[in-house]
Amino acid sequence: MDGEEESEPDEGDDAEADAEVADATEADAEAADAGGDDGLREIPHDEFEPTGTFAIAFLYLGLLAALWLFVYFVEFLGRGPTVVG
Amino acid sequence: MDIQKHEKLWLVAGVAFIVLLIATVVYGTVGAGVSMVDDSGGTIAPDEIPDDDRFGEPRVEHVEGDEYEVYVVSRMFIFQPGTVEVPEGSTVTFYITSADVIHGYQLVGTNVNTMVIPGQIAEITVEFDEPAEYGVVCNEYCGSGHHDMEGMVEVVPEDEWEGA
Lengths: 85, 164
Ligand SMILES: [Cu+2]
Hints:
The structure holds two protein chains of two kinds. By secondary structure, chain A is mainly alpha-helical.
């Protein structure tokens, strides 16, 4: 992975090393913008926010629930008479 | 185990959806009283139909009070009796069997629907609250005349009913 340097930024003790790391990070960001092969971005587990995907998935689930309620209560139970025994 | 927070929410929503499905069906059974067609009607061999007390003479029978029983024989390509007449406010139990192949018996536009299997007696109880006319169709393909196989259930006002 190319975030190796980022993950251990304290490895270098001197300022020069830190500067190098900063440069590397900038370069990474640029690569990411350019959509290059090296533009990988690591996101911590709990900072992953797939808001759009989540919204679509919930919209779909909500639609399923609403349609189920319609089919069961209106189209099925509403179509009397029904078999009671 | 570390589950991502969105995934956790999605799991909860998924389980809630399953609970919703089960709860509505439980309500339909316990609250609304919807029943399934089962094998409680028993069996009868097709060649015994002519000599049977109930199916030898397919008919509507008044049991007592609001209770009626209807014995129906299905065969290619008719229902006997073709027209079933019952009064409003009645609780009607249909006993339906087949003299030949598998047929269906459905009051069109309602949930009153069963397969009619030779050798088997389908038993379904229905409450008819208001006067109405229901077309009956065979909804299991049973041969060349299947599309013509139809009947009628007429729910008439109490004073107009002139049955058994
Ligand atoms: Cu048929």
